[in-house]
Amino acid sequence: MTPQDAHPISSRGSGAEQIPTRMPTANRPQNAGKTVNGDTSRLESVAKVTGAAKYGRDMQAPGMVWVRGIRCPWGNARLIGHDADAAKAVPGVVDVVVTGDTGEYNGDAVGYLLAENKLALSRGLRALRARWERLPCRTGIDAREAVLSVSDKAENALLFADHVLEAEYSTPVQTHSALETHGMMIDHQGDAAVVYASTQGTFAVADEIASFLSLPRNKFEVRCEHVGGGFGAKFQIGKEGAFAGNVASSLKRPVYSFCDRKEEHLDTGNRPSALVKVRVGFSKDGTVLGGQIGVWGGVGVATRGGDAAIPSGRYEFGVIERSMTNVSFNGGAPRAMRAPGHPQGAFAEELMLDEIATIAGVDPLELRIRLDKDETKARQAMYRLGAEMIGWKDRQPTGSQSGVVRRGFGVGSTSWRALRGPCDIEIAVHRDGSAELRTGTQDIGTGQRTACAVLAAERLSIPLELVSVAIGSSRLPNGPASGGSVTSPSSAPAVLAAAADAERQLMEIVAQQIGGAGTDYRLRNGKIVRGEEAVMGWNELCRRLPSESLVGRGTWDGRGSPYFQKGNSNGVQFVEVEVDSETGVVQVKRVIAFQACGRIICRKTAESQIIGGVIQGISYALFEDKLLDRQTGAMVNPNLEWYRILGANDMPTIEPVLWMDAEQTGVRGLGEPPVVPTAGAVAAAVFNAVGTPVRSLPIRPDRVLAAVEAAAVAGVAKGGAS
Amino acid sequence: MTPSQHDPVPPRTHGSDAVPGTPADRSAVGPRGVSRRSFISTLGASGAAAALGGQAEARLAAPIEDGPVVLGPEPVEVALTINGRAVKTKLDPATTLLDALRLNLQMTGSKEVCDRGSCGGCSVLVDGRLVASCMMLALDAVGHDITTIEGLAQGDTLDPIQEAFVRYDAFQCGFCTPGMIMACKALLNETPKPTMEQIRKGLSGNICRCGAYTNVFSAVLEASDQAVPVDQPVPADHTDGGGA
Ligand code: FES
Ligand code: FES
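The joint structure predicted for all components is written out below.
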């Protein structure tokens, strides 16, 4: 059952009680309604609200053996002893496999333990009594070692500047914290296996696990019908997958290997920390002439992947000399995380712009309008409309407020290049009139399943109820991994091609039955028509299929489809905050998120992507921080109470505005773009409220209080001087 | 809803009192005082033994007066009442209610997310009140009415809150959803028409990483028959589809 009935659109309430909101109806792009049923609910909705949806973590098989890594508790340590016999003596423990003796970061694995059940797993690890000798460790970027080297190019740009801003912006390590942790259950039976993985890359997992399983590709299948979030961390099988593969192939029995919450924080990737140093010159009116920007990315034990996207390319910054250094330390390696590199870059860039504007005495929104390089002019329109919607005219000059509760406004921009990958789709039309769309790609919460069904139903011109989607299996047609916002733009052209192929074959059948050529007929509103005349109903045609089903195939190689369009997905976000200058607490009150989205397939899921991106951005701005103890290198908050994630009580009103440029007809993915500007806009708003920038994320109360204090001191100094 | 009824689900708050007192406290919720000891003494030996099932009877009968009861290490038989049905299973006495549901009874709707009371993903109702099932031993749930996500719909008819979740797209990946819905259910049971403040507070023990809160709030308003405010009009000259 999928309720299709239209629902009221909620919006911001007036008065004290702010109501969470969806996009104002009037702002909905007109053609979205034409393209699709804008109120389609997710196909898997009912399974998800009844608990029937089975995720990888929910899969079990009789005789299943449990696996958990033996992990280094310190930042850098040597395993000097353990008691394997004692561990094996614990009832239920199957085996202990120690493969190494050094851990280079907290969470690094030196082996694993196998047990018949979950309790034996933890009892066995306790009995193992792994003893470690701690070695010196390094836990992050040392700002003192990060020095901007002097360059002539930059110095020349600074020569003509009226002002030079020198600043240092830093962002923490953020963990993906998908609620379903990484891992897989391998149901190994005889000489075949089904791998139930929690992944955002079905085929990537198949490729990787194959070498561990030592089974030919036709003897195993990777499945992920439902996935509890990925956010970029679930492209690879990880150690948990490697252990599972090893065990399954050696014991030839089912294996359950999922990280617990702590392992998830420690060893399944993260958004790397960043230190951004800027030295930029600008003229009296805030025009940026150029300068130097240095990025240091904290990549844990990795050696690359730490870049932050600054300058983003969205603003005119003159001549910029840029350097980038990856800094390794004793911490887990990063993995792609929702717009990798971009939120950290945008945080520094947007706050820097507000600082420049404040020094120059110009409005930061006006400055952005002046510096923004967007040729499509979409962002220019968003700046203006957003200012009107959020009430930018009520914004007080930065540093001018002295009350306890101070209000701040901020703005930030985003763009995401349309990326794509090859994709195959099949649509089987059955004699009973139903159609099944098949794609091996996965739906990690993006709405991919629903989007495919909506497009297929639209192209075949049949009710959505007739279309089902088989998704998330390596036995189904090849599809992209869900990264870079490519899944829907890559699938859409293939869906359309498959539907067109099905239609062509069906019309041939019609022609055989009632004469003429296949090209004389086409599908419209559940009927077969010749010109304006209906000649047959959909169901009747399906009944007449020569065999049980007919399969339309669509392949897209990433080129030349009206449903894919190059260019950027532009966006602008406006943020309003309240800062309590006595407690240092920041409350984000309202966010208006404009997002160019191309052709909208499913309005609800598109809006959910934007709202979700904004929420992760606020959470990054205010709360999240993977903290490593400087002495021991151990993560001090490897859980969900001290690693804080935005909750219901922290929620602002969020208004997503789906934006369609007249010339954009391609399908866009909305995973990454909305998460880019939020933290920067929040930081700018806090600066506006307080008067001194908080240049480190998360914007914790202690940092806000320090800023309030600094502003007060500066105010006194200024007052004294005048 | 009286303030005291709020206690079971203290809000996530900002700043200095940020984290403590959040969901972890929910372990304290539910069948008050049902530590294994007091539960057994309340019921009396035979009652407890009956509740625990035949196997434990001999073990329990004797030592009740003069010392702690020792259960395990062998599995014990327990009888639980889940979604109105009596079910029996054999489990290690250290098994949490969550693991009993998921692993022993194959009811995997309730999710393990943090396994320590801080996310709400495993939320169930025990005698109508919200409990983090990862923080309660299965043995402590004996004799109480447990409602899980699997028990909300009546056949094909969804509970109003489930229906509202569907309509408002109150989830993306859906992994927090069973727990979130149980928290909504508990909130609506106690407060049929919650204010926004009460909704925020009532759901503050449940983490959604995908960020579906906005739509969850709307779903709660809808399920409690409350008017969802009308649209804020957009400046007139921008209603042509937003484009430039
Ligand atoms: S509260 Fe039980 S799993 Fe998080
Ligand atoms: S919907 Fe994914 S965590 Fe809530």
